[in-house]
Each structure stands twice: as structure tokens, then as C-alpha cells.
Design goal:
heteropentamer, A mainly alpha (172), B alpha/beta (167), C mainly alpha (100), D mainly alpha (453), E alpha+beta (375), B: 6-stranded mixed β-sheet, two-stranded parallel ribbon, elongated, E: 375 residues, Cytochrome-c3 Hydrogenase, chain B, 3-stranded antiparallel β-sheet, 16 helices, 13% strand
């Protein structure tokens, strides 16, 4: 019962603010709504017992990337871009395509609804009690099975940092 | 109290500039030279470089309305090496411009702007010749003797408040 | 733990809204934000399935996606600043010259 | 009884402790923050040979309430072309970030809202870092030139010092081995010594970084009165401004709590495991009793009758608290209460000591310039923090693998870190000397000479 | 302010941003407006807009008698009123060829040196406050209070004292004058140590003041900067030694000199000056000569026609009086050489290339008082 309440609250907030994010004219407003979406999805991660991803989402996504976005929006004076039209001409084509996609996935989800095992022949979820403590398990898996991807990710971040600094440097 | 002065300083000035040195006087043991406005720049340069008066302590003016050459520019020089003070007085007629001393003593910049603000004497060669203390749109120059202290007030009151100032 | 269908539906919805954002918006910054939204939608799926199987691999992958999203946002914004400094605009349509 | 009512009862039955603690935090913290402001003003006055607020209530004790009422009824002005929604939201974000991060802090073994999040400490840091948005959006929304400059500066400062604080905490967490707040304090109990003695440099870096993170003392540049008038808070007035202010002080409590939990042994009394130091258990009760006695002594001297009554009231409150702390010690059946109550006392004592340090620095040190501040952050603090993390790691391995004595390993690594610190400082001085000896910026021949001196 | 903000394009844009500091600004020591031409944070140029406090003192002087004008002089540099009064009284005495009696000269010296300490204390407090140190201000005000008590006991006023008269003094030194001054000087030694502990060794203070607002000796002399600003740039010159007035020739004291003329050197020079003033006071109260306190000056002063220029070493710099008399009881022209006005001119050369926060420190170190700048 509690799960249902929490899930529908967070899902509702996420979808609503995502929709608002896309339609706002002012970039700062859309940034603020994106932050609410990210926080709502973080809530869903918490509900899925994924604490580390929950906190990683808050620190990295909201505390890191979104601060960057807001910083750039403030630096790039937007009153210049504001009164230019925000939506491109092929708006209706895009809506049409996404509606078709939505209908297709919806029908597939809906038709499989009453097949036993939620339609995907999946085992029932592991009861919450037997889940290993999240951070320790994640750390264990990350640093033995996925050590190489971890190193590659760090190299990727380094490349991104150097690239950004070179890109944004004032041509003096 | 004013006795003509004739010491080696004035001799050097006279032999250097001759007629430009109109008068050399000592008043209450303080010497001052009256010089012609034309040679102001050279005399000032000479005083700083040769006579070592490296500090222009003060630069102001005095208004003598009844005299034909109405204003007296007064430059007070001080020499650090000799610990000596000298005053240069430059008589100027109304409307006549003096050559600016900003190149010789940069401190003259604001001092000349204040003289212009208060007396209306403008200086040729000054980088930024405009009023310094009073607002730009101020009419008249307060420190002139003929500047009535109420004149500005009545004009302003009539213009802004639309009534006659009762003073 | 809700049945998996709900999570799939939620992530699909977010993905579609992100796609609409990418396609319809002319302001590059909002396009970048929509891409972040899409990556986030993918994360929901990963974590949901990781929760069902009780295996942490999904969450590790989600962590890598967050790292990648960060790298992508940093470089994207770098380009935008460099571009804005020269052309005074952030609208996609005006970014049509390969060399200016 | 219909199912929803039943469900609500079940919900309340399992979560009542968390709910009560949550309500206490949201209600008590603004009051406590108000009184911290009063203590700060009184302390500043005392250090500056003056009296501080004396007018409202005896010795100014009702000053925070007066401030709150004033701020409530003050007209709050919204600048004309300000961004209404974001302008309203910014202070709220900054305040909620500070309060939610308090949810995970354990004020004593008993009082904790989010009971066992296993990312405890990370939650506190993550949520309190959301406070940046409050400042950035506040600066942006008020649309005045000064506040945008203030907002940009404080964002840069917060982001760079958060990195340093994070690294300092990592070296503390290495020792603790876990993120759960209760487990960290238990680890310190198990070690028998506070982590501040094992990783002193980490503690020092965290103190400096946390001062910068809460925009205080030598780093309070964003609202440096002299240049930017009030930084991002310029356009705010009335209760909105109070929200920002309370957010800053709540943030100070959060930062103090994190430092206490990780480095100063949370709710452990000094020398937790030493048997013959057990008399320290009596200290909390004696301390509050002493404060009560002092109030009684001062009560007689109050000029106004109301103030004497008030002092008697304060003295009574102190004695009651002292009683609560002392009784469980003596009465056997109440023994189980001792860790909870005394833990809370020690925790609050350490936080107040930490905040006293903040205030002390604010009264004595002048303010850094912005480039010096960023220079200190990036060139000295962050490299030092990284080296410290490596050093603590090496110390841990030396101790575990090679069986070195723990103290020896820690001493060795601290010495290494301090050596790198000196090297960094010398490098910095050389660089600064080189920069300043280069001729002052060349006099470019500006064409319009209107600025000629 | 709005028109300036409109000029600047974007924070990223290259062209300059004109930031307006003042006239209502917490750290401009009065009504001074400085228009800063900024390139990002760097100051490219400054333009001072002054005159908000202009009261036309020199015009008033032409309609007042010599004695009536004396109180106006205190209102110019209201932080160091006693030295203004001393300058004016000595100038008029020179005009009258009258000499103040020795007892008056010694008391005048003591009062002027006390006023110098008080003026430097106000400077130190506000300068430290601008750079962020909150505490020194209250320590300085506490000491200054002692000095103001002495002034109040002597002449009834604390700030604009009008303590001296042309020809000598109006009031005899009250009986515990020597004791008060001695108690203050004894106590002041320990107090200065408190400021030194708070600021001199403080690395943040050194960081904020070392190499900020550097002014070389040649620039100082060229720009006419005088007083502590000149001495901090390495010129060992003090009017009290070069052309002694009042009773300064009877006491020995050193002239503090700085080396590279930055804000830190000016701070050290002014601190040392406070110590020297304290020594002068101690030497002076040992033997205040007995005798009359007012010279042979009649009720109505009619100085013979002529002009004189007399300058003294005020706390801010050289304070000069050029008085022209035409034989009547009212001066024909009184010109006051304001040290703050001329020192402020050096702000533009000192502030170039620095950050906005430094401009605040530089205005503080120039120790300007707007009453004197605008007159």
C-alpha cells in the first residue's frame, strides 16, 4: 500500500515536471523543472532499494551537472535568445512520431498485462529483507568484475574535463 | 610689509627670463615672484628641473575685480632638496586662458579643474577641463567677488518650484 | 516493489518527453537537458530490473551512465560557451555553418 | 475500522519515532538558529569591548523572537522585472536543503530521523550541496547586477570547496570503513580513539572547507559588505531574507554535526573506553548544574525585577536538565537511558564548540579576496586533501598488512602530509613572488585620457 | 546606476563594464562616487565624482571676520578638527606678526598630537573594517573615547573642538590635564600592541595589503601626495621636522619611513606615527612652562594688507592656509590646501590593474575625509 502511494507520487511529479521542462520558454524554468524530475526519479531509485544510485543521482546529476547548466545559462545572457521563437517548425511532425511510438509500446505493455508473471516470465522480485546492503554489494561488484570499465570511465571523464577547459578558454 | 626682494634666486630667474619676471617681493619673510602669463610653462619647467621645486604644494587664484588684469593665479612651490618655499603670482585678465601645468606637475590636474570651477579661468592643454566640485550644469563661478551668493538660489527656486524665492 | 510494468511505462514516458524535447526545441541548452532526461529514463529501467533480479550489475551500469552523462554535459556546455562567444546566439538553426 | 484508517495506523505505529524527530527538527532548528545568531552577536560584542543586544528581554534573550517578528511583518519587496517563480523558490530551496540533510544526522544514539540509511553521511553531504541552487537562483532571479556577481562568486566558491570537503571526509571514511552514521561512531568506539587524532590533517582541511562552504568568516566574500553590498541577498527583504539567513545557520549546524560525527567521536564521551575515566559520565549533569548555579548567582544582580524572575526560570530549567542527566546514572533500572541522554549532551557540546570556532574566526580574521580564496582552494587545499587520502590509505595498509602499530603509521603519514603542505605553501609563495615582481600591469596608452590621474 | 548597467553587454562580452561605487556606499568614507571601468574583475580606470559635501567654506571666509571663521575650519576635516584649528590660528598669527606664548605653544602641541592619534585610530578602525576585520574598529573607538574625554574636559566639545584662539588659547589647561594625558599615554602602549597582535602578523591582512596600491616616491611627489602616503613610499620628510612650528622643535621624535609604498607600508607608517605622537605627548607634559596663555592680540584684528602661506603636518598630509588680507577685519581671500583632496587624486594611478576588492582597500589607505575633499 505504501509502495503504491510513493511510486505514483514520484512518477506523477517526474512526468509532470518533465513535460513542463520541455514546454517552458525560459531556460532557467526548464532547468528548475529538470531538477525536480531528477529528484523525483531519485525517489524512485530509493523505493527500489538502490540507495547508492539515489545518492549518486543527487550528488552527481543534481548537485554537479545541473549546477553546471544553471551556471552556463546565467553566463550566457538569455534575454538575447528569449524572444526568439523557441519551438522549431517541425513541432507537429515530432508529436506525431512520438504518439505513434507511445501507442505501440502501450499496446505491447497492455496486452501482456494479464499473462502470468507480469507477462515477462520474470521471477517474483527478491524480497527486500534478503537484499545485500546496497553500497557494499555495489562496491564489491564495481571493483572486481567491472574494474576495467571503471578505469575507462575515469579516462573518459578526464578527456571530457580537458576538452571542456580547452573549449571554453578565452582566446587570449 | 612688502619689501622688494633681491637675492641670488631672483637674480637667476631675472637673468634667465628677463622681462617675464615682473616683480620680486618679500612679504613677511616669504618671497614671491610676479611673472607674465605667457612664459608660465617655461618658468614652471625651469623651477622644477633647475631650481628643484619638485612639489607644487598648492595652485589657486585670487580675484581683484578693480584691477585691469583681474585674476592672480598663485602657485605655491616647495623644494624638498633645499627645504625652500616659493610663490609664483601670474596676473590674468578675465577670459584669458593660462597654459596648463599638468605635464610638469600632474597634481595640477584637479587643482586647475577647481580653479576653473570656482573662478572660470580655463587652462589650455588640460586633459579634462570641466567642473570638479559643482554639478556640470551650474551657472556662474562662486569665488568671483561679483558672484552674489543668492543669485544661484533665486534662479533655481524660480525654475524648479515656479515661485519667487523670498530671500 | 511495484510490478515491473509500471516502471517500464514510467521510463518510456520520460524517454518520449525527452525525445520530444530534443526534436522540437530550438535552444541548444534545452536540447542538452532533454538528452539528460533520456539518459535518466534509461537509468530507471536498469535499476528496476536490477531490483527484480536482486543483482547489483544493473546499478553498476546505471553508475556508468551517470558518469557518461556528466562527461557529455561538460563537453556540450563547453561547446555552447565557445559558440556563444562568437555568434551571440544559442539557437540550433543558426548553427549551420561548419566553418565561420 | 476501514482499511485506509488501519493502514494509516500501521504506518504511524512503525514510523512514529521518525515523524516526531522530523517535526522536532523542522520546529526547533529555526529557533536554535535564531539563538545561535544571538550568541554570535553577544560573543562578538564581548570580544569587541561592548555589550551587544541588551534591550529585548533580560540580556537580550528575547532578541531572536523580536527579529523573527520584525522580519515577518516587514514588507518584502520583489524587484520589478524579477523572475517571480524563481525569486520565490530560491530561499525555500536553500532552507529545505539544510533541513532535509539534518534528517540523516544522529544527534545521539536515540535521536535520528532516517534511522538506517546505509549511505548516511553521503546523504547529508549530497542534500546540503543542493543549497547551491538556493544561492544561484536567488542571485539570478533578483536581476540586479550586484546580485548576479555575488551569485556567480559564491557558486564558484561553494563548488570548489565542496571538493576539498569531500576529499577530507573520504580520508575519515577510510578509517571508519562504512557510510552509516551509527556505524561510524561505533567504529570510533571500537578504535577507542577519535578519528581527529588519527587523521588530524583531514580534520583541519574539513574545518577550513566547511567554513568556506557556509560562506562564513574569512571566506564570506559573496555578501562582503564592502564591495557587493550584500551579494545574492541584496534584493531580498523581510521573511525571504530570513529564510536565507536561517538556511546559512542550519547549514552551519549540519556541517558541525558531520565534523562531530566523523572526527570528534559523535556522542562518545572523551576517552570512551578508558575505565578509570568513568567519572566523566557525571560531567554532563555537573556542567548543567554549574550553569544553573551561575544563573542563580546572577539573578540577584539583575537591575529589573522581570530579569531576576527570568534568571530564576533559566536556573530552574538548568537544574531540571541536570536532574534528567544525573538520575539515570544513579537509579539502576533507568540505566538504559544513559547512552541516549548523555550521548545527545556530548554531541550538542561538540557541535557548539565547533560553531564557537566559526564565530571566533569571524571576529578576528579579515576577509580574503576572491582570487586568493579560489587560489587557496584549488592550489593548496585540494592537492593537500588528495595527498591526505593517499596517506591515510597507506597508513591503513601498513597497519593491516604489515602489522605496524596504528599510532606509528598514522604519525608517519601525517608527517608526510604536512611535508607536502609545506612544499605546496613554498611553491605558492614562490609563484606569488614571481607574479608580483613582474612589473605592475603596463600603462597602456589609453586614447581617451579622461581618466588621467 | 541603470544607464551604466545598460552599457555592459554580456558577462562574457569583451568590452568594459562600468561599475558605480557610491555615492551611497558602505566603504567610501563619506559621499564619494567612484566610477570604475572594469574588464571582468580588473580595474582599467577610475573616475572620482566629488562635490556632494561642498559647502563653499572659502566663499564664507570672505564674509566673516578672522575670529568668526575659526569654527568653520573645524568642520572641514571633522576627524582632525584640532589640527585644522592650529593651522588656521598659526597662519593668522603669522599674518599679524604675533607669536603665541610658550605655554600656549606646548599645550597646542599636546592637543594636536592627541588629535593625530585619534585620527589615525579612526583610519585604522574603518580601514580594517573595509578589509573584513570586524574587531579592530571597536578597539580603536575605545581608545579614541579616552582622547575625546580629554578634549571635552579641556574645551567642552569632542569633535569640532574650536580649542584654539588666534594668538594663543582661550582656556587654561584644567588641573588634572597632565595626569589624564599621562594615564592615556601609559595605557596606549599596551593597546597598540593589541592592534599589532590582531593585524600586523596576520597572513590574510598581509595578503590583502602587501603590493596593493603601490605608489613610487616620484609618483607621490608628482601627484602632490603628502603625509603618511609620501613617507610610506620612502621619502623621509615631515613638515614638523623640516619647518618646525608650535613647540615641535623642543622634542625629539623619529619619522617612520616605508620602503615600497604599498598599503601595508602605509599601515606600518601610521602605526609608528601613533607611537611617536605618544612619545611627544609624554615629553611635553613633563614641563609645560608657566606663563600667559594668550599673546598681545586685541579684540578686533586688523592685519596690515598682504598675504602669507602657512602649512602644518595634519594627520592626512600637508594642510596649508594661503590668506590674503586687505587691511579690514575680514580676510580678502582664504585658500585651504586640503591633503585628502590631493591624495585622492592618486587613487586612479594606484587602483589600475587591481580588483574591485582592492579599490576598497586603497580608498581606505588614502585616509580621505570627504568634508575636506569637498570643502
Amino acid at each position: 500500500m505504501l509502495d503504491k502511494v510513493i511510486f505514483f507520487f514520484f512518477a506523477g511529479v517526474a512526468i509532470l515536471s518533465a513535460g513542463l521542462m520541455v514546454t517552458r520558454r525560459n531556460a532557467i524554468h526548464s532547468a528548475v523543472f529538470l531538477i525536480t524530475t531528477l529528484l523525483a526519479t531519485a525517489g524512485i531509485f530509493l523505493q527500489l532499494r538502490a540507495e547508492f544510485i539515489f545518492i549518486a543521482q543527487i550528488i552527481l546529476y543534481v548537485g554537479g551537472i545541473m549546477v553546471l547548466f544553471v551556471f552556463v545559462i546565467m553566463l550566457v545572457r538569455l534575454d538575447v535568445a528569449l524572444h526568439q521563437i523557441q519551438f522549431s517548425r517541425q513541432k507537429w511532425v515530432a508529436l506525431l512520431v512520438t504518439l505513434a511510438l507511445a501507442a505501440e509500446v502501450g499496446v505491447m505493455l497492455w496486452s501482456s498485462r494479464n499473462v502470468p508473471g507480469q507477462g515477462f516470465l520474470l521471477p517474483n522480485a527478491v524480497p527486500a529483507g534478503k537484499l545485500p546492503p546496497n553500497t557494499e554489494a555495489l562496491a564489491g561488484r564495481l571493483f572486481d568484475a567491472y574494474l576495467l570499465p571503471f578505469e575507462i570511465a575515469s579516462v573518459l571523464l578526464l578527456v571530457a574535463m580537458v576538452g571542456a577547459v580547452v573549449m571554453a578558454k578565452k582566446r587570449t | 610689509m612688502q619689501i622688494p626682494l633681491d637675492n641670488d634666486l631672483t637674480k637667476r630667474y631675472r637673468e634667465q627670463f628677463g622681462a617675464a619676471i615682473l616683480d620680486a617681493v618679500e612679504d613677511r619673510k616669504q618671497a614671491y615672484l610676479v611673472i607674465a602669463a605667457a612664459q608660465l610653462a617655461e618658468i614652471a619647467g625651469y623651477s622644477r628641473d633647475v631650481e628643484k621645486f619638485d612639489l607644487l604644494e598648492d595652485y589657486t587664484a585670487v580675484d581683484w575685480p578693480r584691477r585691469e588684469k583681474r585674476f592672480d593665479l598663485v602657485a605655491i612651490l616647495y623644494s624638498f632638496p633645499h627645504n625652500l618655499r616659493l610663490r609664483l603670482k601670474i596676473p590674468l585678465a578675465d577670459g584669458e586662458t593660462a597654459s596648463s601645468l599638468v605635464e610638469i606637475w600632474p597634481t595640477a590636474n584637479w587643482l586647475e579643474r577647481e580653479i576653473f570651477d570656482m573662478f572660470g579661468i580655463s587652462f589650455s592643454g588640460h586633459p579634462d577641463m570641466k567642473r570638479i566640485l559643482l554639478p556640470e550644469e551650474w551657472q556662474g563661478h562662486p569665488l568671483r567677488k561679483d558672484y552674489d551668493i543668492l543669485q544661484q538660489d533665486t534662479a533655481w527656486v524660480r525654475e524648479n518650484l515656479g515661485i519667487e524665492s523670498g530671500q | 516493489m511495484m510490478p515491473i510494468g509500471y516502471y517500464l511505462f514510467l521510463s518510456m514516458a520520460l524517454f518520449l518527453i525527452g525525445a520530444i524535447g530534443v526534436i522540437t526545441r530550438r535552444n541548444v541548452i534545452v536540447v542538452l537537458m532533454s538528452i539528460e532526461l533520456i539518459l535518466n529514463a534509461v537509468n530507471i529501467n536498469l535499476v528496476a530490473f536490477s531490483r527484480i533480479f536482486g543483482d547489483v550489475a544493473g546499478q553498476v551500469f546505471a553508475l556508468f551512465i551517470i558518469a557518461d552523462a556528466a562527461a557529455e554535459a561538460v563537453v556540450g556546455l563547453g561547446i555552447i560557451i565557445a559558440f556563444f562567444r562568437n555568434r551571440e546566439t544559442v539557437l540550433e538553426d543558426e548553427m549551420d555553418l561548419l566553418k565561420w | 475500522m476501514n482499511p485506509t484508517l488501519h493502514a494509516v495506523l500501521v504506518f504511524l505505529e512503525t514510523w512514529w519515532v521518525e515523524l516526531v524527530s522530523g517535526v522536532v527538527i523542522v520546529a526547533v532548528v529555526p529557533l536554535v538558529a535564531g539563538y545561535i545568531v544571538l550568541v554570535e552577536r553577544k560573543l562578538m560584542a564581548d570580544m569587541q569591548a561592548r555589550l551587544g543586544p541588551m534591550r529585548v528581554g533580560p540580556h537580550g534573550l528575547l532578541q531572536p523572537i523580536a527579529d523573527a517578528v520584525k522580519l515577518l511583518i516587514k514588507e518584502d519587496i520583489i524587484p520589478d522585472n524579477a523572475d517571480k517563480m524563481v525569486f520565490w523558490m530560491a530561499p525555500v530551496v536553500s532552507m529545505t536543503a539544510a533541513l532535509t540533510s539534518m534528517g540523516a544526522i544522529a544527534f545521539g544514539p536515540a535521536f535520528q530521523v532516517a534511522r538506517d540509511i546505509n549511505v548516511g553521511l553521503l546523504f547529508v553531504i549530497g542534500v546540503s550541496s543542493l543549497g547551491i541552487f538556493g544561492i544561484v537562483l536567488g542571485g539570478w532571479a533578483s536581476n540586479s547586477h550586484y546580485s548576479i556577481m555575488g551569485a556567480l562568486r559564491s557558486t564558484a566558491q561553494l563548488v570548489s570547496y565542496e571538493t576539498a570537503a569531500g576529499l577530507a571526509l573520504i580520508s575519515g571514511l577510510l578509517l571508519a570503513g562504512t557510510l552509516k552514521i551509527r556505524a561510524i561512531v561505533d567504529a570510533q568506539q571500537h578504535f577507542g580513539v577519535w578519528f581527529v587524532f588519527l587523521a588530524p590533517v583531514a580534520f583541519f582541511i574539513y574545518v577550513v572547507a566547511s567554513i568556506a562552504e557556509t560562506n562564513r568568516a574569512p571566506f564570506d566574500l559573496p555578501e562582503a559588505e564592502s564591495e557587493l553590498v550584500a551579494g545574492y541577498m541584496t534584493e531580498y527583504s523581510g521573511f525571504r531574507w530570513a529564510l536565507y539567513f536561517l538556511g546559512e545557520y542550519a547549514n552551519m549546524i549540519v556541517v558541525g554535526a558531520v565534523a562531530t560525527t566523523l572526527f570528534l567521536g559523535g556522542w562518545l564521551r572523551p576517552f570512551p573506553n578508558v575505565r578509570w575515566m568513568n567519572w566523566l559520565d557525571a560531567l554532563p549533569a555537573l556542567f548543567t548544574a554549574a550553569v544553573g548555579a551561575y544563573c542563580v548567582y546572577r539573578a540577584g544582580k539583575q537591575p529589573v525585577r522581570v530579569q531576576t524572575w527570568f534568571m530564576w526560570g533559566v536556573a530552574l530549567a538548568c537544574f531540571v536538565v541536570a536532574l534528567i542527566l544525573a538520575v539515570p546514572l544513579l537509579v539502576a533500572p533507568l540505566k538504559f537511558l544513559v547512552p541516549g541522554l548523555h550521548g545527545a549532551f556530548w554531541f550538542l557540546l561538540k557541535i557548539s564548540a565547533y560553531i564557537y570556532l566559526f564565530m571566533w574566526l569571524r571576529f578576528t580574521l579579515p576577509r580574503y579576496r576572491f582570487d586568493q580564496l579560489m587560489h587557496l582552494g584549488w592550489y593548496i587545499l585540494i592537492p593537500l586533501a588528495i595527498v591526505n587520502v593517499l596517506a591515510v590509505g597507506v597508513a591503513m595498509i601498513l597497519e593491516m598488512e604489515y602489522g605496524w602499530n596504528r599510532w606509528l603509521a598514522m604519525l608517519l603519514t601525517t608527517v608526510i602530509t604536512l611535508a607536502t603542505a609545506l612544499f605546496l605553501l613554498r611553491l605558492n609563495d614562490k609563484r606569488a613572488a614571481a607574479a608580483s615582481s613582474a612589473a605592475p600591469p603596463p600603462e597602456e596608452p589609453s586614447t581617451e585620457d579622461s581618466y588621467a590621474g | 546606476m541603470q544607464d551604466d548597467a545598460a552599457q555592459n553587454q554580456t558577462l562574457l562580452g569583451a568590452d568594459e563594464l562600468v561599475l558605480n561605487m557610491g555615492p551611497q556606499h558602505p566603504s567610501t568614507h563619506g559621499v564619494l562616487r567612484v566610477k570604475l571601468k572594469l574588464d571582468g574583475e580588473r580595474v582599467r580606470g577610475t573616475e572620482c565624482v566629488i562635490g556632494y559635501l561642498h559647502r563653499g567654506v572659502e566663499k564664507i571666509a570672505e564674509n566673516r571676520s578672522y575670529q568668526q571663521f575659526a569654527p568653520y575650519v573645524d568642520r572641514m576635516d571633522y576627524v582632525a578638527a584640532v589640527s585644522n584649528g592650529l593651522g588656521y590660528c598659526e597662519a593668522v598669527e603669522k599674518l599679524l606678526n604675533v607669536e603665541a606664548p610658550p605655554r600656549a605653544k606646548v599645550i597646542r602641541t599636546i592637543m594636536t598630537e592627541l588629535q593625530r592619534i585619534a585620527s589615525h585610530l579612526v583610519w585604522l578602525g574603518t580601514h580594517a573594517l573595509d578589509i573584513g576585520a570586524l574587531t579592530p574598529l571597536f578597539y580603536c573607538l575605545r581608545e579614541r573615547e579616552e582622547i575625546l574625554k580629554i578634549f571635552e574636559k579641556y574645551c567642552g566639545a569632542r569633535l569640532t573642538t574650536h580649542a584654539f584662539r588666534i594668538g594663543g588659547l582661550q582656556y587654561e589647561a584644567y588641573d588634572s590635564f597632565e595626569k589624564d594625558v599621562e594615564r592615556f599615554c601609559k595605557d596606549f602602549e599596551r593597546r597598540i600592541q593589541e592592534y599589532v597582535d590582531l593585524l600586523t602578523g596576520n597572513s590574510i591582512w598581509i595578503g590583502r595589503t602587501r603590493n596593493v596600491g603601490v605608489l613610487s616616491a616620484e609618483d607621490c611627489i608628482a601627484l602632490g601626495a603628502s603625509g603618511p602616503v609620501l613617507r610610506a613610499s620612502g621619502v623621509k620628510w615631515d613638515l614638523r621636522k623640516a619647518q618646525p612650528y608650535a613647540a615641535y622643535d623642543q622634542y625629539n621624535f623619529q619619522i617612520p619611513v616605508g620602503t615600497n609604498g604599498d598599503t601595508y607600508d602605509r599601515y606600518m607608517v601610521r602605526m609608528e606615527e601613533m607611537r611617536q605622537s605618544r612619545l611627544i605627548c609624554l615629553q611635553a607634559i613633563e614641563n609645560i612652562p608657566a606663563g600667559p596663555i594668550l599673546g598681545k592680540v586685541g579684540k578686533v584684528l586688523k592685519p596690515p594688507a598682504g598675504e602669507i602661506y602657512h602649512s602644518i603636518e595634519a594627520p592626512k598630509g600637508i594642510l596649508g592656509y594661503y590668506i590674503v588680507s586687505d587691511g579690514t577685519t575680514q580676510p580678502y581671500r582664504v585658500r585651504i590646501r586640503p591633503p585628502s583632496f590631493i591624495n585622492l587624486q592618486a587613487l586612479d594611478k594606484m587602483a589600475r590593474g587591481h580588483l574591485v576588492a582592492d579599490v576598497v582597500a586603497i580608498i581606505g589607505t588614502l585616509d580621505i575625509v570627504l568634508g575636506e575633499v569637498d570643502r
